[in-house]
Amino acid sequence: MISIIVPTYQEVENLAPLSEMIRSALAEENLSYEILVMDDNSQDGSIEKVAELFTRNHPIRLINRTENRGLSPAVIDGFSEANGDFVVVMDADLSHPATAVPTMIAQLRSGESDFVLGSRYVEGGSIDDSWTLWRYINSVIATVPALPLTRVKDPMSGFFAVRRADLPAPSDLSPIGYKIALEVMVKGNFDKVSEVPIHFVDRIHGESKLTLTEQLKYLRHLRRLYQYKFQTKAEFFQFAAVGSSGFIVDLAVYLLLQMMGISHTVARAISFWPAVSWNWALNRVITFSHREKTAKTTQWGAFVSSSLIGFAVNYGTYYTLTTFVPFFEEHMILALVVGVIMGMGFNFSISNLFIFRKLREEVQNETRQSSAKTK
Length: 375
Hints:
Elements: E1 2-8, H1 12-27, E2 33-39, H2 46-55, E3 60-64, H3 71-81, E4 86-89, H4 101-110, E5 115-119, E6 126-127, H5 133-143, E7 160-163, H6 180-188, E8 193-197, E9 199-200, H7 212-230, H8 232-259, H9 264-287, H10 296-324, H11 326-330, H12 332-355, H13 360-374
Parallel strand pairs: 1-2, 1-4, 2-3, 5-8, 6-9
Antiparallel strand pairs: 4-7, 5-7
Helix pairs in contact: 1-2, 7-8, 8-9, 9-10, 10-12
């Protein structure tokens, strides 16, 4: 049997046509199914509409959710409610064609795929003619930062199918926003992911849930997934980005102080402190926001001390290379780059291991990932 999970909020006008669309598409293939309407307490008549559809022999039931509301949590709760061997997730706004479901299930049954995504951007896929150029560009731009996480062409799609037995444990899923398919794909460690073409149509009834707030949540979600998949590599990239912004702060303060008549040596000594404080603050709230929250003053002091030692490593590397290695005597810029990398590597290692300490849950998560990769 197939469990079709449909997260909803004030979608009462779409429930009947959605159920009819699913019935028509699956009846042709004689597929048994159930529709799980995971509703976030809409209070718009959805409960009554589902009851009416049920009396008309539609295999549909509604789970009214009053806590932890949101599209992704609704889908995760739906995983627990599902009775079928296969799980399909689709939107309630009629944008996802139910006619694609039999093909998606066939790929799972044959073993051709472990995770099937309905895609707008593979050959045969298409989007609604009403889309403006700006909306298309916005969709493509949003897709680009997700590409390193998965090989699919439409990682933004919310229409997917998977074997229920292959779903990650609910405790392993922690999406922010509405991109639950991307969350499941990344954390499910699926070997065979495929895409089937779909024609994506715009909603007719109701209002879009895609707001600026949801787009910002998407960026936060991407960051979390990068940390999950790439772990230390992702943290080092963020640490380096923060360090680059700190250099700009350092340079700005240094130049400002000189404009005020302060000597360059004193200006250089002073500019270090706002720059290192900037780096510490951003690393605390961005790079290592998921780490243990120790006392700010203690952590700041440790970070400053580490940065001073890191600068010594930076300068020591530069001095050693330019003094004792003939090649670098002629290529001092390269020596400078090597010194910066060595100093940053030292700072990151100390910050990662000692200053921003890992929570027990993070260590357990890394252990689970390592075990999954060795199986």
